Amino acid sequence: AQARAGALAPAATGPATSRRLERAAAAETSNEQSGEPLVEFRGVTISYADHVVLNDLTWTVRAGENWAVMGRNGSGKSTLIELISGENPLAYTQDISLFGKRKGSGESVWDIKRQLGVISTEVHMEYTDFADPGNRWYARTHAHVTTWEVVCSGFFDSVGLYTAVGPSQREAALAWIDRLGVSDLVAPPRAGGSAPSGQGQNRNFFHLSFGEQKLVLLCRALVKSPRLLLLDEPSHGLSGLARTRLLSMMEVVADDPTIAVVHVTHREDEVQHMGFQRVLRL
User: Fold this and answer.
1) Of 9, 119, 170, 226, which has the fewest CB atoms closer than 10 Å, so is most exposed?
2) Does residue 276 fall inside a structural domain?
């Protein structure tokens, strides 16, 4: 598929808050002139056998920009996310730069990960498999995987928490939990490791609903305040309250000028709701 990138795309009109739209429009000229490039694709072409997924894509995401990525199934949306996140090794065969460093130029994968937050079906499946009580290896040392552990694992880009959380990390986690409005799902354990009861309890991640797990994983992706947040169909499979809560959380992120967002979706109503002024159509 040939990609078409555009700033101030028509699809961005809709019931988004005027404050967000006005701020994005005001920042447009400034970003084009001085916003630091976080992602740069130059003539990127990806194909599998005879199927071309991305064709000569040149595209730049600058600091603080919010992008929607749209296209039909098989158009390369998920491939695009994988090329940025490092999950697709073909990234090293292309002219792609992240945070000012070309892929394959000796950059550390952990330096890249520290600046990225990711929500995807793969991340969700990894964590639900890991938290499954049938996971015998983990069950030897943990009664269950708590939502606090899931959120704090975002500091270390790990599935599971294996490092003690420091005071500053604890405060950062609490701040994001409050900011995103998920204190009913996540709270730190009390002294001695016991979990508080009632609202705000340190809950068992595996026993949450599918939608609640998504909310916790979004908090995990944001807990380290990444420079770039990658969202691959984040509302897929959600309806009702869970989807409403997720969109509200994403609005909080969209209003943060320190975090750039690349949001893959096939839903035009989502693009309009969020007020995206930059849309990449694949």
Assistant:
1) 170
2) yes
